[in-house]
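Repro:
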Amino acid sequence: MSRTDRITDEPLPARWHSESGLPAPRRLVVADDRIGAATAYRLACEGTALLWRGDYQGARRLLRALERRVDRTVPEPAAAPAETFRLQRRFRAHRARVLGRLTVLLEPDHGLSLRRAPDVRAACTAAYGPPTGPRLIPLRELLGVLGAHQWRERGVEVPALGARVHPHYGVFAPVRGEYVDLVARAPLPPVRTAFDLGTGTGVLAAVLARRGAGRVVGTDISPRAWACARDTVHRLGLADRVTVTGPALYPPGRAGLVVCNPPWLPGRPVSTLEQGVYDPSGRMLSAFLAGLPEHLEPAGEGWLILSDLAEHLGLRTRADLLTAIEAAGLRIAGRIDTRPRHPRAADPRDPLHAARAAEVTSLWRLVPR
């Protein structure tokens, strides 16, 4: 480390911004290519943030070196899957805190004034909106912004639509195609109106519209999701049949079909993307079930698309789910199952491999009792 670098408690050089909810650093040290990985790791573990002033590619190399060091501390799997899950979540939170302490300064125009740095302004504007002044952000999150921007430009192929969907930053991408395929092949009754709750990219709303639902209303709590879903239906020529709204879970009125693909794991998300995976105390699942009877038209049905990974991890039982369905005044009219195809389901190195390998995603057809 340079002799001029120093830890300071002075105000940060810009507004702190973290999509993962990391707290603003209380201590900061200016660092460049002269700092060693061991020193940087020690400072990060102690809670000191490093403001990078060196070469951009050097910052990326340092981040990879920090990743290797922190990954040496990954906990061993416990006997119970639920305990392994909790240990992994605790480790991942620790990992995010440590790696998030390598920071960069975005200029007032979202530019990055580092040697060999790419032009990040378009990607940052797409993620954060128009520039509002300098921002201090974790380098790791900036790399996520750049990766998301590439996804948005290239799009994700959705075979059920025969088209590409372009996910926006902070919106869960339809890379797990099994839930889309379930909605694409489930018997669809004639419906004038369908609701897609938690629409995200709008992919399920688009599938329903393509399959013949007369009018589809997609809802979400996220303004980023509203913009993304509206972009999706516009690109697909479905804007006259699909409406996107929020932030309420249910829109006003009733529908012949109500579809919901809630986050499949009860737990607290630590980033905007994790909101598509983790549902604190199963709140969205409970709200969907509780509100379904009063939002269905006569002879209508609800489709609950849900992975059973939580059951294999010991976080929820099948009896819990069936009891919740019954308590909402609903009965099961049918179910379609599919196996996951994502790479983690076949990775034996994953501490949760046994649970992931046994996972089944189901479309539950629910009707009032």
